Amino acid sequence: MHVEEKLTAETFPASPEKATLEGKNKFLGFWFFLGGETVLFASLFATFLALRDKTAGGPTAEELFKLPLVFVATMLLLTSSLTSVYAMYHMKNFDFKKMQLWLGITVLLGASFLGLEIFEFSEYVHEGHKFSTSAFSSAFYTLVGLHGSHVAFGLLWILTLMIRNAKRGLDLYNAPKFYVASLYWHFIDVVWVFIFTVVYLMGMVG
Amino acid sequence: MSTVARKKSLIWDYLTTVDHKKIAILYLIAGGIFFIMGGIEALIIRIQLAVPNNDFVSAGFYNEVLTMHGTTMIFLAATPLLFALMNAIVPIQIGARDVAFPFLNALGFWLFFFGGLFLNCSWFLGGAPDAGWTSYASLSLESPGHGIDFYVLGLQVSGFGTLISGINFLVTIVNMRAPGMTYMRMPLFTWTTFVASALILFAFPPLTAGLLLLMMDRLFGGNFFDPALGGNTIIYEHLFWIFGHPEVYILVLPAFGIFSEIIATFSKKRLFGYSSMVFAVVLIGFLGFMVWAHHMFTTGMGPIANAIFAVATMAIAVPTGIKIFNWLFTMWGGNIRFTTPMLYAIGFIPSFVMGGVTGVMNATAPADYQYHDSYFVVAHFHYVIVGGVVLALLAGTHYWWPKMFGKMLSEKLGKLTFWLFFTGFHLTFFIQHFLGLMGMPRRVFTFLPGQGWETGNLISTIGAFFMAAGTIVLLINIVITTVKGKKAEADAWGVGRTLEWAVSSPAPEYNFAQTPLVRGLDAFWVEKMEGKKGLTPAEPLGDIHMPNPSFLPFVISLGLFIASFGFMYYKDYSWGLMVGIVGLLITFGAMFLRSVIDDHGYHIHKEEIIEAEKKGAKA
Amino acid sequence: MANHTNSGNPNVDLAYRRKKNAEDMKHQVISFALMIFLTLIAFFAVGYDQFSPWFSVPFIVLLAAVQVVFQLYYFMHMSHKGHELPALFLYGGVFVAFLTIWAFMTVVWW
After folding, report:
1. A85: phi > 0 → left, psi -120 to 50 → alpha, else beta; which?
2. CB B344 within 8 Å of CB B262
3. Which is more confident, A75 or B2?
4. B201 and C89: CB-CB below 8 Å?
C-alpha cells in the first residue's frame, strides 16, 4: 500500500494509523515517549508534594486557589479530550471534513483553557504569589507551567497538521500524524487530572 | 523516478546523513575526541596528586578538571561510544535495512554533540563547572560565574539527544526485526541495547527534571533548593540518583552484551545459558531502578530506608553472578582464540568481579559510613566503569572495526594496547582501595605528607600514564590501518555467528540486498553449519526504499545551542534574551519545516543493487 | 491490498466497520460522562468541607486514578489489540513514577 495513494472510504484501512511501517513506528515510538513523559511529570509532582506546604510566609494554596476557576478549566480540557476522540472517530470513517471540524473545536477548547491559565497565573502574581516567592510557588509554577507549555505545544502541533493537510485530505502518510497528535492531547489531559487532584483539590483540603 | 548519482562533499554528506552506519562513525569520532579530553583531564588529576603538597594546578582549577573529567567521561564519552557501536551493529544484527527513525537518529547525535560542545565552551568563557559531576544543589548554587550554567544547559540539550536515541533503538528492535528473528533469537548485544534503551527512557526524564529545577534556581529565581525560602537540597540528590544509578546500567549492560558476543565468537561455542542471560539482563534493568538511594546512605534517610536500599542493591549481585558464570561456562571446553577482543573479554571478567565485590561492600549501609567519600568509592566505580565499560568499548572497537570501516586493525598493536591499558588500569585503581581505607578523601586537590599516602598515589599516577600510552598506541593503530590496512572479509574474523558478519565490510548502504530469513539463534552460524555461503532470503530482489538525507537535525540542535548561550547570559547582557529567543525560533522553525515538508524518501533500483552486490563480492 | 476484510465486498465491510466505529464511539461518550461525573464528585468532596482530609485525600486520588484508566483504555484505545508494548512501557513509567513519588513523600523530610 503506497503512502501517497488516493484512498476512498472503502479502501481506507480499519487502523489507518498502523497501516504502514512508518505509522507503526510512529505509533509505538510515541507511546514509549509518553512512558518517559510520565516519569518527567512524576518527578515534578514528587517535588511539588515535598514542597507544597513550604510557603515561606507567602500565600498558601488554600488562600490562593479558587475552585470555580479550576473547575471550568478542568471541564474545558476534559471536553477537548472528547472532541479529539470524535476527530479520530471521523478519521477512521474517512470523513476528513468532520475530522478537521472536531480538531478545530479541540483547538478552541484548548486555547480557552490556556487563556484561563494565563489569567489565573496573572491573578496569583497580583496576590503576591510570584515564581520566586517561596519553594511552594516555584514548584507550583514549574509543574503547572510545564503542563501549560505542553498544551501550547499541542495546540501549535494540531494547528500545523490541520493547515498543512487542509487541501490534500486524508492518506496513509498523514493519518498516523493525526493519531499521534491526538494521543499527545489525551496525555495532556491525563496529566491535568492529576494536577487538579493533587495540586488544586489537595491544596484546598490542606 | 531514478536515483541521482549524488556526488556531494564528504563533509556535507556527514552533516546531513541519516544512515545509521554513518551516524555510528560520527558518534565514534565525537565520543572518541571527548574520551581523549576526559583522559587528559584524568592525567591532570593524577599529576596533581602524584606527590603531596603539589601545585601543578590550583585548587579551583582542579575542581573544574575533576568535574569535567566525570561529566565528560559519563555523558560525552561512554554513552556516545556505546551508541556508536549500537548504531553500527544492532540494525544489522536484527536483519534490518535501517533504524525506525533515521531522522531522529541524526537529531539524537547532533543534540548530544552540541550539548557536549556547549559544555566544553565553558573552558574558554570564564571557567568550567566545578561542583563535581553530580553537581549537588547546595554546592552548585553557590558556585560563582557561569560554570554550573554550562553544565545545566549543556546536559539538558545532550540529554534530549540521548532520550531520542533510546526511543529510536526501542522501536527499531521491536518493529524492524527480520522474519524469524524472534525476541529469543536476538543476539545478546541487541538484547542489552534494548534493555539499556528502556532504562534511558525512564532514567533521563528525572535528570532533565533535576537539571530544570537547578536551572530555575540559578537563572530564573526559583527556590527549590534554597532552605531559607522552604527549599530542600535533598530533592536534587534524589532526582540525580534516580537517574544516576540506572545510568550505570545503561552503560554496563551494553558492555555485557559486547562481551557476550566476543566470548561466544572466539570460544567457537554458542553462548552458554542464553535464556538465563536474557533474564539476567532484564532483571538487572528492573532492579536498577530500586537502588538509587544507596548513593545517599549518609544523608540520614533513616535505618528503614537504608536497609531497604541496601538489600535491593545486594540482590543485583545475583543476576550479575549468573552472567559471570555463563561467560565462564561458554569458554569452558571452547576452542578459544586469543584475539585482541578476546583478551579484553578475559581481562574484563576478574576486573569486573572485583568492582562488583566492592559494590556489595559499599551496599552494606553501616560499612558505607566508613567508605563514603573516600578513595575506596573512587576505586570501586572505576573498577566497574573502566573495568566493565571502557574495556568493553575497546574490545568492541577492535571487534567491529572491520565491519565499520572495512579494514582490520593490527592485532599486534591491538594486543599492545590491551596489555598497556590493562596493566595501567589495575596499577591506577587497585591501590586506591587501600588509599581509601587509609582515610584519603575523594575530591581533594592535594594532601599532606606523612599520612602514608605517598607511595600509593605515585603508583596510581604511573598507572594512569600506562593507560594513556595504551590509548596512544590505539590511535597509531587506527592511523596505520586507515592508511594501509588489510581489506576485511565480510566474515572478518572467520568465526562470526551473527548477521552483521554476513554482509560485506563495511556494510552496503541498504545493509541487506534481500531481507534475510532468520532460522535460529546465531543466524549466520546456522547457515554456515549447513554449508551455505550466504543467508536464506525472505523476499525476492527488488527496489529498496531509503530515507532522504536532511540538514534539519543539525539546525534544530544548533538552535538549542544558540538559545542556551542566550538564556545563560540574559541577566548579564541586554542581548542575552534576544539571542535566546532567536535560538528557540531556529529550533522550532526547523521543526516546523520538518513537519510541513513531506519526506517520502527514495528508492535504490534493483539493477543498482545487483551491480553493487557484484562489486562487493569481488572485493 | 490488506483490507482486514472477511466478506470480500468492500461496501459490506465498510458498513460493518462504520457500525463498529459508531459502537466504539458510544463507549467513548459513556466513559466521558463517567469522567465528568467522577470530576464532579471530587470537586464536591473538597468543596463540601465536612470530610476529614484523611478521607477526602485518598478518595480524590482514587477518583483521579479511575478517571485516568478511562482516558487510557477508552480515549487512548489501550483496550484495543496491539497495545501490549505501549501498555508495558506505560506501566514501566508508572512504576518509576510511583517509586519517585513514594520516596519523596517518605524520605525527604527536612
Report:
1. alpha
2. yes
3. A75
4. yes
> Rounded distance, CA B291 to CA B248, Å?
11
- Subunit contact A186:C47, Cβ cutoff 8 A: no
| CA-based nearest residue to A178, from A1, A2, A30 | A30
> Which residue in B441, B527, B444, B530 sits closest to B491, CA to CA?
B527
Model ipTM? Answer: 0.94
**Helix (H) / strand (E) containing A21:** helix A21-51
Whole-angstrom distance, CA of residue B122 vs CA of residue B141: 17
How many distinct helices (H) and strands (E) make up chain A? 7, 0
Cell 531522522 found at: B103
- Rounded Cα–Cα distance for residues A24 and B273 (Å): 33
Q: Measure the CA–CA gap between A143 and A117, rounded to whole angstroms.
A: 13
Per-residue pLDDT reduced to its tens digit, B124-134: 999 999 999 99
Q: Grid coordinates representing B456?
A: 600509593
B599 pLDDT band, cuts 50/70/90, is confident
Contact residues on chain A for B209, CB-CB shorter than 8 A = 40, 43-44, 47
Inter-chain residue contact B238 with C99, CB threshold 8 Å: no
pLDDT at residue number B1: 35
**Among residues B127, B123, B117, which one has the least CA distance to residue B80?**
B117
Question: What is the predicted pLDDT for the residue at C51?
Answer: 84
The C-alpha atoms of residue B576 and residue B462 are separated, in whole angstroms, by 46
CA A102 from centroid of its chain's CA atoms: 15
Pairwise CB contact (< 8 Å): A50 & C105: yes
* CB-based contact B293 C95, cutoff 8 Å: no
The model's pTM: 0.95
Q: Out of A21, A51, A131, name the one closest to residue B230 (CB).
A: A51
CB contact under 8 A, C104 and B238: yes
Which chains, if any, share at least 3 CB pairs under 8 A with chain A?
A: B, C
B-chain residues within 8 Å CB-CB of C95? Answer: 289
Which chains would you list as touching B if contact means 3+ CB atom pairs under 8 Å?
Answer: A, C
Q: Could you give the CA distance from residue A45 to residue A41 in angstroms, rounded to a whole number?
A: 6
Q: How far apart are CA A131 and CA A135, in angstroms?
A: 9
Between the alpha carbon of residue B474 and those of residues B25, B42, B131, the distances in Å are: 16, 18, 32
How many other CB atoms are there within 10 angstroms of residue A85's CB atom?
A: 25
Question: What mean pLDDT is predicted for residues B457-466?
Answer: 97
Q: Count CA atoms within 13 Å of residue B600 on its CB side.
A: 10
Say whether B238 and C96 touch across the interface (CB within 8 A).
no
* C-alpha distance from residue B586 to each of B114, B150, B154, B417, B516 (Å): 14, 20, 17, 44, 42
Nearest CA distance, A49 vs chain C (angstrom): 7
Most distant CA pair in chain B: distance in Å?
Answer: 79
Single-letter amino acid, residue B334? G
Spatial separation of the C-alpha atoms in residues B35 and B69, rounded to whole Å: 9
Q: What is the mean pLDDT of residues B562-590?
A: 95
Would you say B285 and B198 are in contact if contact means Cβ atoms under 8 Å apart?
yes
Residue B619 pLDDT: 47
* pLDDT confidence band for A16 (50 / 70 / 90): confident
Q: How far is CA B105 from the centre of its chain?
A: 15
Does A28 reach chain B within 8 Å, measured CB to CB? yes
B contacts of A135 (beta carbons < 8 Å):
223-224, 226, 229-232
Is B102 within 8 Å of B18 (Cβ atoms)? Answer: yes
